[in-house]
User: Fold this.
Amino acid sequence: CSTLDNERLLLEKILNPNAETSKRTLCMTLEKIILTDIYWGVNLKRSVILTNETARNRLRYLDFSRNSIINWLNLDGFMVQGYDYIQYANLQSINMRKVSASFFASFPSLKVLLLGGNKLAESFSSSKSRDMFHANHKLEILDLSANGIISLPKQLLQNNKNLTELNISGNHLSDFDVNLDVQIQLQLINLTGNSL
Assistant:
């Protein structure tokens, strides 16, 4: 199993999820996936399952930043399985418009989550958004910058006691009422570029 095999399988899964080749799993030796600055021109449909059925995979690092995967990317109906060990996910500037409150529960080992430069205001306007990072107990760095966010729920970070850095800069917040009582390790909150 080579890195080239893994890259080919990953692209096959994304471009044609129903093809016979997409049923094969990524090799267990794969630790990083970096697909940045790519225009894919692919329409991903709702309820596509992005899955790695190999439970013992070593995948720890995802970088899909600065991609044009789809215009108005909506991850609200997507399910992700088999990526329990991802510690770093860079999804910055991928034109993401909406993500369900349960989407990140599929990544319980996340330590770094970079979501800056998207358009996630609608996702955080829902009352369910308080559970967005509920399952991410190990989360240390969270970047929500430049997403057009108008408000954040008070209990957004209620289960993220390991958080050390929070970047919410460049949004449209007029107040910041997120409860930070459990964030005893928090070292940096960046709120610049808001209307506070």
Notes: The helical segments are 3-15, 121-125. Residues 42-55 have pLDDT under 50 and may be disordered.
